[in-house]
TrEMBL record:
Keywords: Iron, Metal-binding, Oxidoreductase. It holds the Pfam family 2OG-FeII_Oxy. The keyword Coiled coil does not apply. The keyword Metal-binding applies. InterPro entries: IPNS-like_FE2OG_OXY, IPNS-like_sf, Iron_ascorbate_oxido_reductase, Oxoglu/Fe-dep_dioxygenase_dom. This is Fe2OG dioxygenase domain-containing protein. SUPFAM superfamilies: Clavaminate synthase-like.
Length: 335
């Protein structure tokens, strides 16, 4: 990895706690309690990978996928568009034209293609197909982390054993995917920054970024604060599906990606995301059991399958839910 200019010290940063993957893997009760606390209060945390064999492998793989995505995003636009929305409504290359004509772009690659859950994979460029072993290893490692976190949440919520895990089996069809994100260096444009405000709509998200730019708006505030990238850690956040399943016990926090702050603002920004979603045929509604039974029915989500849900959210038809001031708001576009 080439050296990047540092994230600035004079900007306001978000109060994310840092949890250790190794300690969570080892069954450390205090770490598990800290995980449940931040899943309820902020819905975002750092996950430090050092000391975990799988975590350390993920850091190396994320760096390799970052290099790969730089190459992929450098392909001619016509080439990338061969894998665009005409190929698939969501698992595709997408772009947004900034006022200066440059493209903010992403590319969604589904877990079911990488792990062979579908018999026929969507077409992909040679760069992607040649990196199949890297993708497969990375997706399996992300799934290891996801399954551990779901199990810990299941225990903390006092749900019958395996409830959350059984809604998220890696071998079942789902909207899980890897995302490459690229933003070129660009002047701050309030409209495009605002357009990007969103909650994630899946269950859990694993994010690697190398430059600043990610901002969150903490609960009970109206101020956007920066999330500092931390080398050797990923950022994990909870999505709207966890809010629906738990009737609001868990939090899916609003966030957005702004141009990186100086002295990082002249660089192209890339990030690598793994989104987990419930299995396609899971019905999106509050779960029965554990401490969820004791809370009021506070999330008015129309019932539909997870497949309908992520397609609607992914195309912007269904607005997001997020807890800004303890209530539920819906006036944001989907991402
Ligand atoms: O690029 C980042 O840091 C965050 C990206 C993100 O929030 C998303 O793709 O949903
Ligand atoms: Fe997001």
């Amino acid at each position: 990895m080439s050296e990047l200019p540092p994230f600035p010290t004079d900007v306001k940063t978000a109060p994310l706690v840092s949890l250790s993957l190794a300690r969570l893997e080892a069954g450390d009760a205090a770490e598990a309690a800290a995980f449940f606390k931040c899943s309820k209060e902020l819905g975002f945390f750092y996950l430090e990978m050092a000391g975990s064999e799988i975590g350390e492998a993920m850091v190396t793989e994320a760096d390799a996928l970052n290099e790969l995505q730089k190459q992929w995003m450098s392909l001619p636009n016509e080439t990338k568009e061969e894998y665009g929305l005409k190929m698939h409504d969501f698992f595709a290359y997408r772009h947004y034209v900034l006022p200066d004509g440059q493209r903010k772009e992403d590319y969604n690659i589904r877990k079911d293609d990488v792990l062979g859950v579908v018999s026929e994979r969507l077409p992909a460029h040679k760069l992607i197909l040649d990196a199949q072993p890297l993708f497969e290893s990375y997706v399996r490692h992300c799934r290891h982390v996801i399954e551990l976190l779901l199990e810990l949440l299941n225990t903390a919520l006092k749900l019958p054993p395996g409830t959350l895990g059984n809604l998220h089996k890696a071998s079942a069809r789902s909207g899980d995917h890897v995302r490459f994100n690229h933003s070129p260096p660009a002047a701050w444009d309030e409209e495009s920054v605002r357009k990007g405000e969103h909650t994630d709509y899946g269950s859990l998200t694993i994010l690697f970024n190398w430059l600043g730019g990610l901002q969150i708006r903490p609960p009970d505030t109206t101020e956007w604060v920066w999330v500092r990238p931390v080398r050797g850690s990923c950022i994990v956040n909870l999505g709207d599906a966890m809010v629906t399943f738990t009737s609001g016990i868990l939090r899916s926090n609003i966030h957005r990606v702004a141009p990186a702050p100086p002295p990082q603002d002249h660089l192209d920004r890339y990030s690598l995301v793994y989104f987990t979603r419930p299995e396609d045929d899971v019905v999106m509604r509050r779960l029965k059991g554990g401490i969820i039974d004791a809370v009021e029915d506070s999330v008015a989500t129309p019932e539909m399958t997870a497949a309908e849900w992520w397609l609607k959210r992914g195309s912007g038809v269904l607005p997001g839910i997020f807890t800004a001031k303890g209530g539920f708001e819906s006036a944001i576009p989907a991402q």
